[in-house]
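Dear colleagues,

For the upcoming journal club I promised to circulate an example of a predicted protein-ligand complex. I picked one with magnesium ion because it came up in last month's discussion. The inputs are reproduced below in full, followed by the predicted structure.
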Amino acid sequence: MTTLQLVEVTAGFGAVTVLHGIDLDVKDGEIAGVFGLNGAGKSVTMKTIAGIVPARSGQIWFDGVDITRLDAESRVEMGMGHVPQGRQVFANLTVEENLRLGAYTLRRRDKSRYPAVLDSVYDRFPVLRERRTQKAGTMSGGQQASLAVARALVNEPRLILVDEPSAGLSPKMQGDLREVLQVVKDSGVTMVLVEQNVAFGLSLVDTANLLQTGVVVHTAPVAELDEDTLATHLGIGRVLAGATGSALTARKKR
Ligand SMILES: Nc1ncnc2c1ncn2[C@@H]1O[C@H](COP(=O)(O)OP(=O)(O)OP(=O)(O)O)[C@@H](O)[C@H]1O
Ligand SMILES: [Mg+2]
């Protein structure tokens, strides 16, 4: 079954078209990767899925419902979560206050469920429970990345859009984040993952969609991807392709 489908979606700003007809298929329970260079349109794709940037043409289907014209809040209510690029946690609010804000649609739907949901999120992120009274802005980059993901999960989404979560993290923190995202996936949440760090992304995704100037130019299950294809479509040099290549090999063995 398909959780999310984009058909020929275009979007832009003023006279500029950024998405020139995006096709994307995300199956239930999978992590779909979106990779591309700076400015390729990855974040605009995520914002268009989330309803923050309107689609100018084409269709977006979520669980079989045409949501193309639905506003962002209604998409959240339908079970979509967004972890924006740069994390955007509220630095001066505590961890718990950030989570509470994230849960606004859940609390409106059924306030009584919030404590149990918060508890289950804390079970998945023990570090956030420990630090629940700490100001988000004083936490490490990795902890803030976890908070940003947790804040999307308190609405119990079926689908989350995660935009460049590994940016700025040390290799150790990237490892922790990978585990967090794997746990989220294992709990049955479908995910679209945008990554500039292709090696990190390949360690998680089931399928890869390669984006070039607003068009998906190549889609393949990770098992069918090869380094040449990645290098061609992403224009990555040999050094990076080396790291990416080892991530690919490691991933195929799993
Ligand atoms: N609000 C906006 N107004 C005008 N142009 C925009 C706006 N948001 C994005 N763009 C343009 O759309 C294009 C794609 O931007 P987008 O943020 O999707 O890139 P990206 O692939 O996410 O890049 P990065 O890897 O740097 O995050 C860029 O040329 C950008 O300048
Ligand atoms: Mg971006």
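Two points we might discuss: The first strand starts at residue 2 and ends at 13. The domain at 2-86+160-253 is CATH 3.40.50.300 (Rossmann fold).

See you all on Thursday,
B. R.
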